Batch of 2 targets.
Target 1
Amino acid sequence: SVGALSACTSSGGNKAGMPSRTFGAPSSVSPSAGQKVVEASLTARPATLDLAGRQVSTWAYGEAAPGPLVRATAGDFLRVTLDNQLPADTTIHWHGIRLRNSADGVPGLTQDPVKPGAKYVYEFTAPDPGTYFFHPHVGVQLDRALYAPMVIDDPADPGRYDAEWIVVLDDWIDGTGTTPDDVLKKLIADGGTTSPGGMGGMGGMGGMDHGSMGGMSMGTPPWGDAGDVQYPLFLINGKPATDPDVLTATPGQKVRLRVINAASDTIFTVALGGHRMTITETDGHAVQPAEVDAFYIGMGERYDAIVTVKDGVFPLVARPFGKTSGGQAVALLRTGSGAAPDPGVTPAELSGQVLIGSQLQPAESSRLPNKSPDATVDLSLQGSMKPYQWGINGAPFGQNEPLTVKAGQRLRINATNMTMMTHPLHLHGHTFALPSGLRKDTVLMAPMQSFAIDLDADNAGDWMIHCHNIYHAEAGMMIALNYV
Ligand code: C2O
Ligand code: CU
């Protein structure tokens, strides 16, 4: 069958086939003359978090989830020391940053894993302004609380906003007696848990609109089944709906929302009650401003929006797509007086015009120069929930052939989703252009959808392309892109 893998791991893990290179100490690099250096330290460690009065034990950067914001200006030199106080190997991947390969944080591909008790220094230049985040690239550690936002400011930003709200979304499993590793084991043993009927449940084949990249559509979203795990809770900035994060602002102010989906297995619909939002960037790239009631955000995607805020108390709601438990994530925008809304609040905007991000149009400034591809490769997302097997181009990571590219080429990747689930496809170290020209580093692919993505091979190294459903990635839905 089309979705089947020709080779499968027995354990679902990719370790068997992981490249076994060793790297030693991080390769050193120095800031150039006049380059500003931004230093930070992050301790990955076991932590007890308070979720609306419930104490949960997990792993975090420091003492909170999300971990501390790392912020710099485009062109700055970052020097971030990771202190691994976890009882496990870890790394940090700087999601979306076009950084030098050796700082990309992929064990076995760009560095050795950082052992318990060890430190590792990440040094790199962050060339592009935008909204990013970081997380380990080891196993399913992202689904603990090991994630934090990263903002790269634009030195040329004309001050388009008065206030900023960084909004980090998460699906919460840990500290409930079940760790993400338990969840992965269970998925491999039993297959997915999303819908009682297995594949093609909620959403199914009906109402799909694959391939259409023009205009915005309303009505049934094209995602089909969009997650494997039922979560007990959803969080915004580490807080559940019953104890929401609050942004205060003054009526009439322009607020910039930087929304980051750090969840492992959940697509959300995001809406701000009482307001329409003007989407201005996605994954750090400017778009033609689009005013919407709500938008979908896949795992690993980022959307920036500008909102002129009204007077009152408004819920920012992130509703998990296709999940039947755990409620929703809610935060509050407070600009005036009023009672906080009920945690189950359903702003009308949620069912208004909901943007599918890949249908945004690029700003002229973020288009790739016109050029026809020098090389073309195919990338096929494959697999199934039962048995729980995911791969790319016929096999799980470690058994599939890396894609290759030569420096300087415009590479076209003909990407196809051969499965009945939605997958957020993420590329390291580069951004790609959709057929519309829209630049992204993470894009949702609906069931059976195909499109070509183009990238300029201007950042030599060995890079990952993978599904940002962290369970799919760990089960093998990854492939390397190597410069040759
Ligand atoms: Cu956030 Cu390899 O990904
Ligand atoms: Cu996936």
Note: The pocket of CU-O-CU linkage (ligand 1) is lined by residues 93, 95, 135, 137, 300, 426, 428, 464, 466, 468 (CB under 6 Å).
Target 2
Amino acid sequence: MAERSVVIVGGGLVGSLAACYFAKRGWKVDLYEKRQDVRQPEHSCLVEHRSINLAISERGFSALRRLDPLLEARVRELAIPMHGRMIHALDGKQTSQAYDVFGKHINSVGRNALIRVLLDAADSYSWVTLHFRHELVDVDFDARRATLRNAETGHQLDSSADLIVGADGAYSRVRQRMMTKVMMNYSQTYIEHGYCEFSMAPINDAFAMDPNHLHIWPRGSFMLIALPNPDKSFTCTLFMPWRQFDQIKTGDEAVGFFRANFPDALDLMGEKSMCAEYARNPKGSLVYVKCTPHTYKNCAVILGDAAHAMVPFYGQGMNCGFEDVEKLDEIMLATLQASGSESTETTQLTDEQLLSALDEYSATRAADTDAIVDLALDNYVEMRSSVISYSYLLRKQLEGILHRLFPTFVIPLYTMVSFTSIPYAAVIRQWNRQTLWLHRSIYAATATAVLGAGLISAQLLGLRMPALNQVARIFSHNY
Ligand code: FAD
């Protein structure tokens, strides 16, 4: 077996999945994570400024399946299906909106539970070493060397490998260093909204609301959402402009705000618990990042949020990061097999082949990750306001009917993003085509209806309208 090694920086969701993939393909893996090991009981509640649970859908499952179908099954066991959105009106009325006409659904899974499964899977390979409390300080890509600081001892150490993978999140240091080596186009944008999480405890040992929905309280410029947890609680997240967060300074003001906007949720959370959490829980910012390329020569690649952080409104950040890992593996394997090799060990790639695989990955992936970053932004407007507009509901109904009749020709946007692996950029192209045809059909139907009504009225009134009568004659001859 060819000796090839990889240093992975970041042991979050994407870094730990990447460790499993590289290990499966025979690479010696060293993973460095600056935080503690979340699998240790005393560190199990460590979720710094991030959602406690998240939605996993087809792209995420597909990446797990390719690695190991048993791993996918294990994650499915941990997950709670959410078949649709439950829209909560101000008067407490709840309306269910199914995600898909064929019953496909997304799933709520605990962030730490998922990381634990992935770290255990990575740990099961004897050629993987997980180093916790090791923070990346610097990288010398051309020397293929990462410098890390051990938080326990304060000592610095160097770690060398054939490939350096940056899976160190939205504020990636690997990406920062890469920018000094390549002409990277890069943008980072904060949206004007932040978020704060709350818990909704079970009532009489049962879920306080229907557990098989993602609950939304859309209120125009802000919204509250809730996802179920296996312990029968919900994690609720308030997304709101910072200026509104700033206006709520006291517990009474928080209660007043919730009472005015989310009275049913407040009753289920309890005023005391909501107030305590509003005061105690961190308010997170929401940032999106686009950059290209994602690679440097055959030395380094960035994956997950490090390459494409996005706002969380499509529930795709992690799913897309998992898909990155799957796509990279597909390309590396295809490059190896195109050279005539039947091996599945990508350690066999020559330096030139590795370069060509990384170039291809970066060239193809950036368009897709940019596309989902944009889609995620658009979906915020949909979640916080469109979901209750008549035009949105009408289009949803119409698309549902057409999708049922022509499942491969008309596919709702949400279905393409969440329940298929159609590349994100192709999703946008198909959506634009569908929108064009839908608009043309609506215009044609409206024009036909108006013309028909005109003809009928003219006939009924016995009006002498030569032009209309001429049209009527043509129609009556042809049909
Ligand atoms: P991260 O999760 O940020 O992990 C990076 C890791 O690198 C961390 O463990 C960090 O400690 C480590 N690290 C950072 N710097 C260093 C360093 N210098 N040295 C060593 N280690 C380092 N996505 C979905 O798919 N579905 C959802 O429903 C969803 N909901 C979300 C809700 C919210 C409120 C937010 C904020 C995000 C949500 N996301 C969701 C997005 C998802 O959380 C991210 O896309 C995902 O966590 C990205 O994983 P990652 O491993 O790339 O980065």
Note: Confidence is low (pLDDT under 50) at residues 474-479.
